[in-house]
Amino acid sequence: MDGVSAGFPVRFSRLIPEVQAGPGGCLLSGTKCQDLPFCEDTGMPPILTPFGELRSTLRGVGLATWLAVSAHAILALPAKPERLTSDEYWPFGLSLIGFGLIFWLATHPRSDALPIRVKLGLCALEAIFALSANQIFNGNSLLSGMLLVAAVHVGILLPLRLAFAWIGFQTLGLALILYINWPLIEAASYTTGWLCFQVFAVLSAQVAVREVQARQQLMLVVAELQTTRSRLAEASRDAERLRIARELHDLVGHHLTALTMNLQVAEHGAQDERSRTHVERARTIAVQLLSRVRASVRAMRDDGPVDWKAELEQLQQHWEEVKLHAALPDDLDTVTPAQSHILLRCIQEIVTNARKHGQAQNVWIRLDCQAHQVQLSAHDDGHGALTVTPGCGLLGMRERLESVGGQLKIDLDSAPGFALTATLPLSGLSQ
User: Any stretches that span the bilayer, and where are they (predicted)?
Assistant: First the structure.
């Protein structure tokens, strides 16, 4: 079990029976990575394993301890030159350097990908170099401090019982060295003291690991709650859309059908050509409106892809007084159907306002798919406005955009005419 402490199953509550390491050291709990806001697929940092999160702290404290112990031993040499013979300088120096180098490699960020056996092998080399330096220096008690670093390292990687067994072997090696160089009573007392220090170091490491795991459990629970909330909100929106679709079909659709039939009768009963023309045009508008209502109901029930060419042609036919100039990109497939429908409703509102309020003759529409968003730019050649009091149309447009994480900007400085910009994120609907 490489991503998490080997032999150390991370069990939390009944809500999350077991947390395991996934690719890249990300901890998953039966939840797909793309459903969690902190995973790589969504651009947020993944949850690190306990060793990965504690590694930087262990690295800094361990190297500082190694430097302090090594400096003390080297500075003590002039006062007690008999500690080392001329043949022992190189082995002693290599032991100190070897410990620092192995510890530096074992706590390097790339070490997270190493198998647990390799990590424990590096810990064993740390203990061997620490004991070797201690033996060469005639059992110096302060050099035993490097064993504390190895004990903390092992305490993060192994469960408590195995970590205690490990420091037991380390302490046994230290006891043999002190017994060779010191009187029995002093050797026993110092061995007992360093054993207590190592036990404390392992317990502290275990507490830190459990704190990291508890925090990761909380992050997983929060992520799952956010995912559940998003799905509930989406289900609520779908239910509301279905309700509105039924209301449109049952109320507006029936009335428009009745209006169309009455206009058809009125058209046949019109006395002069002028009246017949107006009635025929009114009936055509009613038929088109009924078609739009039915299309809206279908769109609410099923967010299929938008046929931009057909929709814009139909919009142009409805507003014959306005010339519509549309520039669409080729990569509109990156826009979701729901976002496409929102953009289409915005374009319809833009053209309506341009003719109704600005008496515009031309409307220019441009869609641009950028790195993380799609942008709708529009302007016309109408009268423009010095101030804007948003009515139902602009308010509805803004609400539609903001419901999916977008925004609407109105440019009052564009002359002549009226200009606005709408943006939508390409990452999907906001939660």
Answer: 58-77, 89-106, 143-160, 167-185, 191-209
Is residue 62's pLDDT more than 60? yes
The pair of structure tokens assigned to 23 is 């690719």
Domains in the chain and their CATH numbers?
20-226 (no CATH), 321-431 (3.30.565.10)
- Contact between residue 66 and residue 150 where contact means Cβ atoms under 8 Å apart: no
Given a cut of 80, whether residue 51 has pLDDT beyond it is: no
| Residue 330 phi, psi (nearest 5) | -85, -15
Task: List CB contacts of 426: < 8 A, sequence separation 6 or more.
Answer: 334, 335, 369, 370, 372, 373, 374
Rg (the chain; Cα; Å): 37
- H/E stretch holding 363 reads strand 362-369
- Partnered with residue 369 across adjacent β-strands are 374
**CB–CB of 417/384 below 8 Å?**
yes
CA end-to-end distance (rounded Å), the chain:
35
Q: Which residues pair with 423 in a beta bridge?
A: 375, 407
- pTM for this predicted structure: 0.49
pLDDT level of residue 255 (50, 70, 90 thresholds): low
* pLDDT tens per residue, range 13-22: 333 333 334 3
